[in-house]
Design goal:
Length: about 500
């Protein structure tokens, strides 16, 4: 299959196949459809990749179904060995992956290399280690015994987002493969190059043909075909709540496949009067701007106790206005790249304008950050809870700051959202932290920090942030189903 060659300003040349990875080989789409991959820095064409249609999804599913019979007989140790080899290969190609995320996602090279890529490797190694820890329970029953066992669903699919393509792909791939499933991965059409590179390494790691299939394609074409497919038994999706609903409806209208959804967020950060304000301001600044705010667990709503509000604002401005070099994200000296696309740039800037129109005050930022798809870190004060910038996920470096007078009000405002992915508490009182964390309607809480991602800790949301979990042993449960087996020792006797 044809390779595309991309010469990068950091001196690297990226070579990835242009085809769909189906049954262990790269192939063109059946009708010749392609998708253009653009550089977010200047909107120039990086590559043309094959774009999967329904017929291509069918081919991938059939290949996976054929591979399933033998793959189900592999031992956990064997599956772990495959994942270990893949982890080693990703690590060996870490600089290529970081360069790829810089050129098609706009993620600064060092952020990707030391963050996303490193975590992807750790994820694969973690599931390689615990593949043999998928266990059931022994259950005492009258006149017999019973046990449960966890079994793979079989043919599964993962639809991954554009904001952290390698890392989140490995969040799905690791537990899916460790638990004995075969997998179709649909990569994001905006940032598909990591998936193309990963497919090369899947082949090199020696996975049997059909066990892992990787398809670039549009959501309304390949994604819809996956959600509707009668032979796919589980689909995991990370992305917007609107698309999550479409997948859920398609699953219900087809074969009632299991669905796991990790959707949007509107993360509150609660800063109490006894907090270390330097620490709180540092994490609030980073947590509301990292990856250009293109993070589902962004700290996008700050609630600050009225007694420390002015002091916090001063420190928050100080931390947020420190110079971070903006420019070409392939350079190791650049700390801020462009957002992923012109469309995303326009979306974020429209929310900033809407905030002004609704009466909020811009504390800093709020203007176009020069040429290209660069968006400034923007903070609003004098906001009201019903404003769009407070209620809706912007998926950009935009944060609102409000006051609270007591713990009850802080919890009420934090929970006043349809989203429930992540929340953040800053306090020196461990009793307060425990009490508030138990009252917040979210899937995970961080205390006195932001951005803690550990592969052995589950990640996921409640409310309209979805259901199901990535990472941790809980992800293995999410990729398996429970079977009960009961034995009677009565023989032909009757109770």
């Amino acid at each position: 299959m044809e390779l595309t060659h991309i010469n990068v300003p950091n001196g690297k040349t990226i070579r990835v196949p242009t085809g769909l990875f189906i049954n262990g080989v790269f192939v063109a789409s059946q009708n010749g459809s392609t998708v253009d991959v653009l550089n977010p820095l200047n909107d120039e064409l990086l590559a043309k990749l094959a774009s999967a249609q329904k017929v291509d999804v069918d081919l991938a599913v059939n290949a996976a179904a054929k591979a399933l019979g033998e793959w189900k007989t592999t031992s956990a140790i064997q599956r772990g060995d495959f994942l270990s080899r893949l982890a080693d290969l990703v690590e060996q190609n870490a600089e290529d992956f970081a360069t790829i995320e810089a050129i098609d996602a706009g993620i600064p090279y060092n952020d990707s290399l030391h963050g996303h890529v490193k975590h992807a490797v750790n994820t694969l190694r973690y599931y390689a280690r615990i593949a043999g820890q998928i266990t059931g329970d022994a259950i005492d029953i009258p006149n017999g015994f019973a046990y449960t066992r966890r079994e793979p669903f079989g043919v599964c699919a993962a639809i991954v987002p554009w904001n952290a393509p390698l890392m989140i792909t490995c969040w799905k791939l690791g537990p899916a493969i460790a638990s004995g499933n075969v997998l179709i991965i649909k990569t994001p059409e905006l940032t598909p190059l990591c998936g193309q590179k990963l497919a090369q390494l899947v082949f090199k790691a020696g996975f049997p043909p059909g066990v892992i299939n990787i398809l670039c394609g549009l959501g309304q074409e390949a994604g819809q075909a996956i959600a509707e497919h009668m032979l796919i038994r589980k689909v995991a999706f990370t992305g917007s709540d609107r698309t999550g609903r479409r997948i859920l409806r398609a699953a219900a209208d087809s074969n009632l496949k299991k669905v796991s959804l990790e959707l949007g967020g509107k993360g509150p950060g609660l800063i109490f009067p006894d907090a270390d304000l330097q620490n709180a301001a540092f994490w609030a600044s980073l947590g509301s701007s990292a990856n250009n705010g293109q993070i589902c667990a962004l700290m996008s709503r700050l609630y600050v106790h009225e007694n420390i509000y002015n002091d916090f604002i001063s420190l928050f401005i100080e931390h947020s206005q420190r110079q971070v070099k903006q420019g070409n994200p392939t350079s190791s000296s650049v700390g801020k790249g462009p957002v992923v696309s012109l469309g995303q740039y326009k979306r974020i800037m429209s929310y900033i304008e809407k905030g002004r129109e609704e009466g909020a005050t811009v504390l800093f930022g709020g203007h176009s950050a020069g040429g290209g798809n660069f968006v400034p870190h923007t903070a609003f004060v004098n906001v009201k809870e019903e404003m769009s910038i407070v209620k809706e996920e912007i998926f950009g470096p935009v944060v609102t700051i409000s006051k609270f007078s007591n713990e009850e009000d802080a919890i009420k405002m934090a929970n006043n959202s349809e989203y429930g992915l992540a929340a953040y508490i800053f306090t020196s009182d461990i009793a307060c932290a425990k009490r508030v964390s138990e009252s917040l309607e979210v899937g995970q809480v961080s205390v006195n920090s932001w951005g803690l991602i550990n592969v052995n800790v589950p990640f996921g949301g409640v409310k309209q942030s979805g259901f199901g979990r990535d990472m941790g042993k809980e992800a293995l449960d999410d990729w398996t189903t429970v079977k009960s087996v009961q034995f009677s020792i009565l023989g032909d006797k009757r109770i």
